[in-house]
Amino acid sequence: MAFALRRPLALPQALRQISKSTIPTSRAFHASPLKPSPTFFISKTPVPTITTLTKSRHAFQSARNYMQQPYQVSRPDSGNLTQRLLYGAGITGATLVAINLVFNRETREDGGMPAFERQYLNETFMHTGLGIGIIGVAAQALHRSGWSYKLMATNPWVVLGVGLATSIGTMYGCFATHPDNYVQKYALWTGFNLAQAALLSPLMFLQPVLLARAGLYTIAMMGSIAFVGATAKQEKYLYLGGPLLAGVAIVAVSGFAPLILPATAARTLMWTENIWLYGGLAVFGGFTLYDVQKVLMHARQAERGLIPKDAVNESIGLELDFLNIFIRMVQILGMRNQKR
Fold first, then answer.
1. pLDDT of 208-229, one tens digit each?
2. Which of residues 220 and 77 earns the better pLDDT score?
3. 184, 287 contact by CB (below 8 A)
4. How far apart are CA 115 and CA 128, in angstroms?
5. Taking Cα atoms as reference points, which of 333, 103, 42, 116 lies closest to residue 210?
């Protein structure tokens, strides 16, 4: 009854179809004459009727056989991975050789790097790596606490002013502190690193793979340039201080262009962005070369007793070089992913 109420026309249609299918069959049966069949006495095998139970049994068996098939795990082709690793190692080695041939034709002739220079350079690199690690861990912690959202919602001029004041204040405070005053020295150095972490925490919105690639490229670039600076002749690249200072001023002005120029000046903004990106890579790569040679010069002066040994101050310059190169690497890789 419920079926008839929901579909009132379904029952008459079904009866109509049944009546149409049965009537012609009965008429044909009565109208056809009876003829002897030659195969009347031949026994025929009965055709088995397929019931619903048989169908369900076959379906269950096929599903069971499907479930029992072995699962094949798709493994990456080890040949392609090995080929990529070989290509990467070849490109890195060729880059190191090319940089060494172009920038380091005249190597040291004083019997190699003295022990005190090597020790001072290793201490500087150790503090540089420690500072970069503090910046990374602090930036991740600040990002998880919601600092990045608050920073992006704040007026950019306020962020720029407070960030520059904090960074410059802690940096020059660390420079002015004597190395024997360990507590104040490392407190100001830690404050400088935390200030950089607070400004760079919005980078944690990006993919970790992109950040890892940018960090790897930055380490490779700075490592090759530092190798050239460490094995070059004494004070060979210290003359680059003046040109690099002029270059960093141009890069800084181009970085402020989006805050000053209107959005209609698209071509000018494109040129300033290219100067900030690729010009900044060249400038801070040159600063890496200059800073490494300056560290070695300070090591020789400290050995003579002219200045105190201060690896913390030396590491700040290399940290700034790393951060500026890293930020540009992140932006370049992000632009490449968007084009894909």
1. 999 999 999 999 999 999 988 8
2. 220
3. no
4. 20
5. 333
